[in-house]
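Mods, move this if it's the wrong board.
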Amino acid sequence: MFSISLGGGAELRPLEPWNAVEFLEHMDRARATVDPWIPWASVSTDLPSATATLQRYADKRAADTGGLFGIWLDGTLVGGTMFTSFDTGSGNCEVGCWLEPAGTGRGLITTAVRVLIDWAIRERGMHRVEWLCDPDNTASANVARRLGMTAEGRKRESYPWQGRRRDTEIWALLAPEWLADKTV
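Not the wrong board. Structure tokens:
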């Protein structure tokens, strides 16, 4: 199993179905922070549903259409990042993230997502990397900004969540922009 150091006692590694107990415990800690923005934590509420979430992403990784990666801080799972979509044919992918309060303020998400983007572009030939978020989720938009993404627009009332239709803000970067930035 690979593990990539993110510095400061943090590491990035794949989240697998056998991590379901640890993942569920983490989702329980993260639920209040994550659920206001995305239905991510609400789909993993017990061991069978947590296992199913991890299996779905393991299947996506096996099919080369996505993947889920955890962020561990001092040995505790505190968040993660993922390719929600990964299409080598079109050269497009979407990256996303989540983090529980114990991991905030350390740059873990920006660093972990930077690792995924760099790999997707340099190793897999992705041309376009997208980041989607609720426009009111300023923390998420700030990560997109730090990664050098461009705000491209908004899909109005694009999905229902928690009793109302939500907008989706679209951020993206293109491979030539990423590769031209020598600071990445």
